[in-house]
Amino acid sequence: MSDYLQRNSPSQSVAFNDQERMDKPKITAVKAESGNLALAIAEAALERKAGELLVLKVADVSYLADYFLMMTGYSRVQVRAIVDAIEDKIKTECQRIPLRTEGKMEGHWVLQDYGDVIVHIMMPKEREFYNLEAFWGHAQQVKLQINNSGI
């Protein structure tokens, strides 16, 4: 005999109305707001000379976020400058602050979580070692058109 009590499970099958299932809106497209946020973050990072900028649309392969941005800072000072530039630009243009920021004090790998967009700013050694591009290689890569005045 099991110690598990089945108090929380229904004693009978529950009927499911197919019409209810059809009436619920389906989320199939990524919100335009997420894409605009990702582009604004990329622009702020490029203003601080972030290297090897990569934007991945992960909405189709993960529930964690809609976009991942990965970039390289070539010194701890530059990594922090990129982080600050992103925070300032997004706060003024999008009226958003990151839900969480990790690693800023160390400056080797900083993660900024904006909910629908997650940003990784890494030193070259960390970027090569963790190789997030390979882990998320099945996600769609967003091509950025970069000109002298930004994206």
From TrEMBL:
Entries under Gene3D superfamilies matching the protein: Beta Polymerase, domain 2 (3.30.460.10)
Localization terms from the record: Cytoplasm
Cytoplasm listed as a keyword: yes
Q: Which Pfam families match?
A: RsfS
Q: Which PANTHER family match?
A: IOJAP SUPERFAMILY ORTHOLOG (PTHR21043), MITOCHONDRIAL ASSEMBLY OF RIBOSOMAL LARGE SUBUNIT PROTEIN 1 (PTHR21043:SF0)
Q: Which family does it belong to?
A: Belongs to the Iojap/RsfS family.
Its protein name is Ribosomal silencing factor RsfS
Q: What is the organism field in this record?
A: Richelia intracellularis HH01
